[in-house]
């Protein structure tokens, strides 16, 4: 069998219109009208390449049957969803089966083919393929319960910033507390903010992110707050706490050498932020009280560029206001620590064909979203709160965030 990777096509399966085939994915910046795939771990474009058999279709059927590709179109084209599913299969073999030599790079060579053959002989199905929102893990249910408790609490007890939000006629991709929604058929991401009221010019990656998808909970880490040195302005932006609607998209869409998969505000106008109006390098209720020269409260602003993206391995905070996720480690659906540091790149420079690095845990995050999103769903609900809100549930408590973060950083 030939090596299969992004852009590979079975005989006669190359789309008649490559542009139309890619259109649902290429909706941002320099990707618009592109007729090649963006291989973001290799920072290069991949053309459609037609083979002589039906190897891609066989691969897609395997990934579907094994529980990694529920959205399969069985089209014989190794596209973005197939690449993400292959990486998840490789990651599952690496972590759940203990094959430490496996690197989840999305390339199907002899090593990956060998594991596929083994799985097919044993009729194996992954845990991930057996889970669902109707058959959730306890952790998933606990987090969903906490979200409902948070909605009730902040609807009845909004602080100064949420009170200001409630008075606005249009909040774009940000929802008012009474509008927060937690349908289990949707994808949910929880951001847990820490130390936001402490003054800092260079912020650390000291926050948590919990992805709730397909009845499972996966935990990542990074930062929800901007570093002043990255923002390059004194009044750095802070995404306000609450719920925001994000769509699947791309980051760095104006710089061809840096384009990669990320999440963007669903409404093109953006999400609601508050700037550090009092210039104390912190996010506090004081910021909502600062007035301009005419005596008007500066208040909240809408911002289109607060994405959810990668921050290397977590060594540096690459946020100018975005929500950033580290690639060094994560907790899987069983709350088991997974170390990606052997192959996770710390920056763009490691993402080349020769280095064979990946974005590590960040890829697990984006691949889960792309593969396990329900049909026709191209967005998720991001609910950002501070660690004190964990006290709303007896299943967690405010100390939970620090304990989990220390565990994630221990690798």
UniProtKB/TrEMBL annotation:
InterPro entries given in the database record: Peptidoglycan-bd-like (IPR002477), PGBD-like_sf (IPR036365), PGBDSf (IPR036366)
Record domain Peptidoglycan binding-like: where: 52-92
Signal peptide: none
The protein, known as: Peptidoglycan-binding domain-containing protein
Pfam families hit by this protein: PG_binding_1 (PF01471)
Organism (species): Hwangdonia lutea
């Amino acid at each position: 069998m030939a090596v299969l990777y992004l852009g590979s096509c079975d005989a006669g399966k190359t789309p008649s219109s490559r542009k139309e085939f890619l259109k649902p994915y290429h909706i941002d910046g320099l990707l618009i009208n592109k007729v090649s795939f963006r291989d973001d771990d290799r920072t290069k474009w991949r053309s459609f390449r037609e083979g002589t058999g039906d190897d891609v279709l066989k691969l897609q059927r395997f990934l579907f049957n094994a529980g990694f590709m529920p959205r399969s179109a069985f089209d014989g084209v190794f596209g973005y969803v197939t690449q993400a599913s292959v990486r998840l299969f490789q990651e599952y073999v690496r972590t759940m089966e203990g094959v430490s030599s496996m690197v989840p790079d999305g390339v199907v060579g002899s090593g990956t083919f060998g594991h596929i053959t083994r799985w097919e002989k044993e009729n194996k199905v992954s845990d991930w393929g057996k889970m669902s929102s109707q058959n959730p893990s306890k952790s998933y249910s606990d987090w969903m319960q906490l979200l409902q408790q948070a909605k009730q609490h902040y609807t009845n007890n909004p602080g100064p910033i949420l009170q200001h939000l409630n008075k606005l006629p249009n909040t774009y991709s940000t929802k008012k507390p009474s509008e927060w929604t937690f349908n289990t058929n949707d994808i949910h991401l929880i951001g847990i903010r820490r130390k936001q009221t402490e003054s800092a010019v260079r912020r650390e990656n000291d926050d948590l992110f919990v992805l709730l998808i397909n009845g499972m909970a996966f935990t990542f880490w990074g930062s929800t707050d901007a570093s002043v040195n990255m923002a390059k302005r004194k009044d750095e932006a802070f995404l306000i706490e609450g719920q925001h609607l994000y769509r699947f998209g791309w980051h760095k869409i104006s710089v061809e050498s840096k384009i990669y998969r990320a999440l963007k505000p669903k409404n093109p106008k953006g999400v609601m932020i508050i700037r550090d109006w009092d210039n104390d390098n912190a996010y506090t209720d004081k910021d909502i009280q600062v007035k301009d020269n005419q005596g008007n409260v500066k208040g909240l602003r809408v911002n289109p560029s607060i994405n959810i993206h990668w921050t290397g391995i977590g060594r540096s905070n690459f946020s100018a206001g975005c929500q950033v996720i580290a690639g060094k480690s994560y907790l899987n659906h069983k709350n088991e620590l997974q170390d990606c540091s052997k192959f996770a790149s710390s920056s763009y420079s490691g993402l080349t064909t020769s280095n064979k690095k990946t974005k590590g845990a960040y890829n697990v995050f984006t691949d889960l979203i792309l593969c396990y999103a329900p049909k026709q769903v191209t967005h998720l609900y991001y609910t950002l709160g501070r660690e004190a809100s964990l006290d709303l549930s007896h299943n967690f408590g405010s100390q939970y965030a620090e304990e989990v973060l220390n565990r994630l950083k221990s690798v």
